[in-house]
């Protein structure tokens, strides 16, 4: 199946939103919608794409600030995240937006993932909750790609100092990824450039 990944840069925090599409279908996945909703909507509408799932890698504001607008514009989309993330996105203190000039509370999640689960899309989409960078983190894997949010970022140690971060959880996640995925698996982070599972021992400091 021909899968295309279209990144959309959000200006405020340089976070990345990803649109995942497959040839011959208008139903897409949107991963981590940031504040540049108009930019994202332009991409979606240009190709006639309809979000079937809006999936969050974690609860921090720079990865969720487009949820409300997307859910309003694309009524059929389901918001998916880990169960912990679902509790945090609706609380501006837990998603850290309270400490900025633009506090934000997301609409509630439609699907709260508690363990390794798969979304019913065109191809298997694995969702696996993991702590580390945040308590509500979740890895998303499909078609040889791993969407990691801020759990793994190229050339940077993972930040675990924010509320809910855990070095122990990060170490567990790192070990699981290295055993579960081939070295050539492409990691698409929440900020910066893609890299591979083979690079993880050099990119992550637990």
Shape: globular
Say which CATH homologous superfamily is assigned: Ribonuclease Z/Hydroxyacylglutathione hydrolase-like
Q: Please state the CA-atom Rg, rounded to the nearest Å.
A: 16 Å
Rounded mean pLDDT is: 96
For the biggest sheet, the summary is: 6 strands, mixed
The count of helical stretches stands at 5
Biggest β-sheet: strands ordered side by side in the sheet: 1-2-3-4-5-6
CATH T-level fold name: Metallo-beta-lactamase, Chain A
What's the structural domain tally? 1
CATH class: Alpha Beta
Report strand %: 25-35%
| Broad structural category | alpha/beta
Distance between the ends: 36 Å
Number of strands: 12
General description of the model:
- The chain has 206 residues and is of the alpha/beta class.
- The mean pLDDT is 96.
- Helices cover 20% and strands 28% of the residues.
- The chain has a single domain (3-203), classed as Ribonuclease Z/Hydroxyacylglutathione hydrolase-like (Metallo-beta-lactamase, Chain A, 4-Layer Sandwich).
State the gist of this model:
By secondary structure, the protein is of the alpha/beta class. 20% of the residues lie in helices and 28% in strands.
Task: Summarize the topology.
Blueprint: E1 3-9, E2 16-22, E3 27-31, H1 37-47, E4 50-55, H2 67-73, E5 78-82, H3 83-88, E6 111-113, E7 117-119, E8 125-129, E9 138-142, E10 145-149, H4 167-180, E11 186-189, E12 195-196, H5 200-203
Parallel strand pairs: 3-4, 4-5, 5-6, 10-11
Antiparallel strand pairs: 1-2, 2-3, 7-8, 8-9, 9-10, 11-12
């Amino acid at each position: 199946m021909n899968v295309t990944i279209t990144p959309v840069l959000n200006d405020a925090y340089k976070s990345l939103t990803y649109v995942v599409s497959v040839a011959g279908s208008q139903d897409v996945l949107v991963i981590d919608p940031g504040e540049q909703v108009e930019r994202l909507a332009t991409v979606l509408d240009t190709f006639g794409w309809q979000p079937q799932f809006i999936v969050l890698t974690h609860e921090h504001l720079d990865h969720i600030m487009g949820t409300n607008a997307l859910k309003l514009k694309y009524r059929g989309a389901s918001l998916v995240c880990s169960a912990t993330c679902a509790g945090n996105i609706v609380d501006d203190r837990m998603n850290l937006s309270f400490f900025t000039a633009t506090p934000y509370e997301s609409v509630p999640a439609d699907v709260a993932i508690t363990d390794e689960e798969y979304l019913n899309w065109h191809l298997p989409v694995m969702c696996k909750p993991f702590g580390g960078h945040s308590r509500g983190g979740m890895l998303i894997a499909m078609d040889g790609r791993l969407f990691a949010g801020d759990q793994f970022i190229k050339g940077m140690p993972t930040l675990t100092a924010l509320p809910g971060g855990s070095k122990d959880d990060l170490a567990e996640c790192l070990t699981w990824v290295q055993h579960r995925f081939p070295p050539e698996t492409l990691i698409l982070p929440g900020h910066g450039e893609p890299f591979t599972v083979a690079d993880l021992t050099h990119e992550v400091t637990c």
